[in-house]
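Board notes, transcribed. Complex of a protein with 4'-deoxy-4'-aminopyridoxal-5'-phosphate.
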Amino acid sequence: YDDRDGKIWLDGQLVDWRAANVHVLTHALHYASSVFEGERCYNGKIFKSREHSERLVQSGRLIDFEIPYSVDEIEAAKEATLKANNLTDAYVRAFAWRGVGEDMGVASARNPVRMAVAVWSWGNYYGDAKMKGAKLDIAKWRRPDPATAPSQAKAAGLYMIATMSKHTAEAKGCSDAMMMDYRGYVAEATGANIFFVKDGEVHTPTPDAFLNGITRQTVIQMLTEKGIKVNERHIMPDELEGFEQCWLTGTAAEVTPVGQIGDYNFEVGALTREIAEEYEKLVRS
Ligand code: PMP
């Protein structure tokens, strides 16, 4: 990803893609003092752009730093980066981190907070699975207790267990892994929230130990408007046996049907297809 043409917005300026570098003693690289957003631009408009910028600022605060740009400035930075790269349909990665400064220890209050925005074309996050139904492994790693890590921050540190879980899943021929939380309840995939269907109702885990995704909230609203009951509750993994359909939601994942989790199978049913199609229409409208 580093060797390509284009521009990246870095600390207030558009720089050449290949020149958007940081020093190896960057605090974030050593201590995960970094937060990020994943957004998608459809037909020239970023879906729920402002919510993503607000979440980025909030994630920074949750890991104890203040991004030195306002939400309006972040919005302008994203627009400028899309324009500079001539993209109207793209994935947008806005991120902020503690840079190099006076401190090389764990404390970093004297190190500057830096920010960048990169945009690129990114098709289906799960490839073919988008239509056929993704196959998920069940992760060994669990989402931490909110008293152990700031679960509602989209913070780099929370992705260490996600990367390890996804590597294990891919080695088994799966597209992703379903993770449990610290209590053993079903939580989410490594970068997407999860939904189940049973007897015409939808069930989805309560987001009390993982990110309450913007796509998740959008899909819950879509279902509610259709008159479909959404049960947000704690779900035990042994309940998977009784669920008929399953899908994942996320900015990158959009609405991706799930065909299998461990030994449990799901059909790519009518409601799953309907929600996937309606989401696609909504983001482009
Ligand atoms: N959970 C995790 C761990 C994620 O990384 C993401 C992607 N940001 C999501 C859920 C879905 O969030 P959103 O719908 O806001 O993209």
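Residues 38, 154, 188, 191-193, 210-211, 213-216, 249-251 surround 4'-deoxy-4'-aminopyridoxal-5'-phosphate (CB under 6 Å). The domain at 7-120 is CATH 3.30.470.10 (D-amino Acid Aminotransferase; Chain A, domain 1).
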